[in-house]
């Protein structure tokens, strides 16, 4: 027999309304009561009835994670965090790819919300950078949270100081004696690509190294684009001794090309990335990178969204920390190859 909310209330010695507040993570419940109700619900193996809950609250208790990002590693980390938050708040979720380059993608998102009766959206780059989409969601009063948006004021979601992180990475390479430091930019539509390039420039400037446009190559945040960029950089008459890729997938592509050319990493070439996705620890040598807590960012963005769904005055833009992960793919600069 299915355990009902009335059963949880009776066993915990509280009202059904109190149980509902606990299950919806509302702040108006004493901590001791919250813990008692949660313990009882767990012991009884209580699961909310989605249909009854939806009718009672006039909500679908369903949110969607929208993406158009070629990095499967990054997306999986975000997705895991979103799932954790949805489980905490007893929400369902859908995952939906959206082609950012399509002329009608804003209408596509609008139709998805209407057909699925979504309570809100979690947006990832580059969708977070579309003013047309954000304006339309605001107009329709559809709650949404952004992961790493280009515009950080006035919205809800999570951000990370990617520009400063990139600057710190370049400073690290410069401290190792590298002066020929190349950069593979991310997808042109992503705000992250701009921030990481600006951080690269700031790091060079701080180290007294002139900016050389021949050392900056456009990528797409994909392994293949990292390989293509690596070939272009390593074919230069005066190739770099270090390459900073705007994400780990492209850095892995660089390392694949370097290995294929018989180059030692980091003896002949230092390589570093950004994000600290699982691939950074799975390749050889392990990759020096910037740890972006993507899983925590996905979870926190979802928490902020669900707060805003419960109370439109709630939800905020939160700032997450980063950290350099110095591993075996970077080392001192050696004499330039001839």
Helix-and-strand structural type: alpha/beta
- At CATH level 2, the architecture of the largest domain is 3-Layer(aba) Sandwich
- The value of Rg in angstroms is 23 Å
Q: Helicity, in percent?
A: 40-55%
Low-confidence stretches: none
Q: How would you spell out the order of helices and strands? A: HHHHEHEHEHEEHEHEHEHEHEHEE
Number of domains: 3
What is the CATH T-level topology of the largest domain? Rossmann fold
Question: CA-to-CA gap between the ends?
Answer: 77 Å
Superfamily (CATH H level) name of the largest domain: Response regulator
Major sheet description? 6 strands, parallel
Sheet-strand content, in percent, reads: 5-15%
Count of alpha and pi helical runs = 13
Q: Order of strands across the widest beta sheet?
A: 2-1-3-4-5-11
**Count of beta strands:** 12
Quote the average pLDDT.
90
CATH C-level name of the largest domain: Alpha Beta
> What is the 3D shape?
elongated
Question: Any overview of this molecule?
Answer:
It is built from 13 helices and twelve strands. It has three domains: 5-47, 434 Repressor (Amino-terminal Domain); 56-160 and 293-321, Response regulator (Rossmann fold, 3-Layer(aba) Sandwich); 162-292, Response regulator (Rossmann fold). The strands form three sheets. The protein has a six-stranded parallel β-sheet with strand order 2-1-3-4-5-11, covered by helices on one side. The model has no long low-confidence stretch (mean pLDDT 90). The chain has helices at residues 5-12, 16-23, 31-43, 50-57, 72-88, 105-116, 131-140, 162-175, 191-207, 223-234, 248-260, 279-282, 294-310, and strands at 62-67, 92-97, 120-123, 144-147, 157-160, 181-185, 216-218, 242-245, 270-272, 289-291, 317-320, 323-325. With 338 residues, the chain is α/β, with parallel strands linked by helices.
